[in-house]
Amino acid sequence: METSKVIHAIYNDDDVLMDAVKKVKAERYHIEEIYTPFPVHGLDKAMGLAPTRIAIASFIYGLVGLSVAIIMMNFIMIKDWPQNIGGKPSFSYIENMPAFVPIMFELTVFFAAHLMVITFYLRSRMWPFKKSENPDPRTTDDHFLMEIAVDGNEDELTNLLKESGAVEINLVDKAH
Amino acid sequence: MYTFSNKLRTFSFALIILGLLGVGYGFMTSHKSLEEVKMMLAEEASEHGGGHAEATTHTVVEGTHGTTSHEANVEEAHHGDEHAEHVQHQLANRPWSALYVAAFFFMMISLGILAFYAIQIAAQAGWSPVLFRVMEGMTAYLLPGALIVIAIAVASGTIGHYNLFVWMDPEVVADDKLIQGKSGWLNLPWFTIRGLIFVAGWSLYRHFSRKFSIAQDTAEDKSNFKKAFRISAAFLVFFIYTESMMSWDWIMSVDPHWFSTLFGWYVFASMFVSGITVLALITIYLKSRNYLEFVNENHLHDVAKFMFAFSIFWTYLWFSQFMLIWYSNIPEEVTYFVTRFGDYKLPFLGMVVMNFVFPILMLMNADFKRVPWFVVMTGLVILAGHYIDIFNMIMPATVGDRWFIGIPEISSVLLFAGLFILVVFTALTKAPLLVKGYPFRKESEHFHY
Questions:
Q1: Which residues 366-395 of B are in CB contact (within 8 Å) with A?
Q2: Residues A156-166: pLDDT tens digits?
Q3: pLDDT, tens digit (0-9, with 9 covering 90-100), for B337-388
Q4: Coil, strand or helix at B230
Q5: Which of A50, A66, A82 is the last residue of a domain?
Q6: Cβ separation of A55 and B366 shorter than 8 Å?
Q7: Residue B246 lies in a domain
Q8: B289 φ, ψ (degrees, to nearest 5)
Q9: How many distinct structural domains can be found in chain B?
């Protein structure tokens, strides 16, 4: 196995964590994962993760929602059961369009938001009743955990992490 | 310290002179005799194959304009005379309206940014203090700009021939029950006094906040900051009431029969987004001249986010106002949109593209908000769109279907743009471009997205 042993360095401040990440990256160590109780702004950039594409996905979902709204309102209000909207029985989609704009807006937001969350769960491999991958429950409260692969260099790595302000450093064997 | 470059100063003078010439030309050529108007109408009628289209648009306009109403099938000659007189009046209104729209547009940029500045201080925002001096420079135009707006409005009802506000015309009021009912509010002395109260309140806030801001640069304690914080909060309360009343007075009352309860908010959205856009443009200009070295793309990003967000906010209010009136379809309300869809289709719908579709697509991407030339290009479109927004608020009531964006309109914009540049950049030279002693200065300098 490639990385059976990892070091878990635990921090208790997000600013300290950010500086530590920069230091560790500068020394060219590979950070496997970081667990934080809340999103830390700029952490993805500092870790050198590829930029997220969820914004593009969300834009497309929004367009899908908009199209669904347009087609749905056309079917419901114009085609299937023509409605007299606001005392203007024109039965024309384009002339009644202002009445549908709030629905278009709502469905755009609805689709973008819900599909984005679902996409996020799928990409993060999360589903209901899944067992937590979180190595330390304190990272759901007030601690930050950095996981670094060890490759026969634990002493230098431990020193580096201590210098960077870690409050606790554990060597963990992942190959159970 | 910023020094006003000679090139820019000369440019602003050139704009003012060019603008004055054009405005003068507009006024000189706007007075047509009744015979000339009749000739013009006859020519148009023959071009359009009969005056049918003319008559339909005309009936729509006159309702809002307060001229005595007449049936379509009254005596032909008499109708022709009255119609020609009406058109003659509309032609005479055009340079006044063009001047007023441009004056209001540049005033609202200043007023919008004053509110933005007050919000930044009252919210104790950490990102924006590096831009405070640019905002303070921009608000220097508020006092002259707002006085000019009031002066044009008052002049149109005194030395002019009631070219902007029909309720200023005693003859119109005499036959108009609705305006008579509103004359306790809509009369020239009270209109002027109200305007002066609004301007006095805004200018007092601007004067003291600027004073405290400069005093804080060299102060040892934070007392000036605390005072600025307190007056900013008080100003915002004053502002939201007076801004609303100002928009009823200075804009909505050009159609004295019509009213909209969210009009103040709608004008506010326009003023806010225009102000923030000009803030972005001036910041980028100053950076390109190697000033504001402490401002970076993170600050630009946040300003552009505001441009994006308030473009959407504007659209939300524009649409809310439109949809409720369209849906209920009550005649006295819906005339407002009938004129705009009838005679102003291109500017009215074009404005939605410029103020909504364009910014939403251009500024949605986070990376684009950090690119100066991109923000400049989008900003210019947004500004043009909001000029057209004000144009659409005033023109249908004053010039009806006789609108065009020609020499009077463009010259008026040039005139006030020149004045705006002159006043704002002169104010920028008066103080260092960084608020040295402001408590959140450091946070702002290190602001990072």
A1: 366
A2: 888 888 888 88
A3: 999 999 999 999 999 999 999 999 999 888 899 999 999 999 999 999 999 9
A4: helix
A5: A50
A6: yes
A7: yes
A8: -100, 20
A9: 1
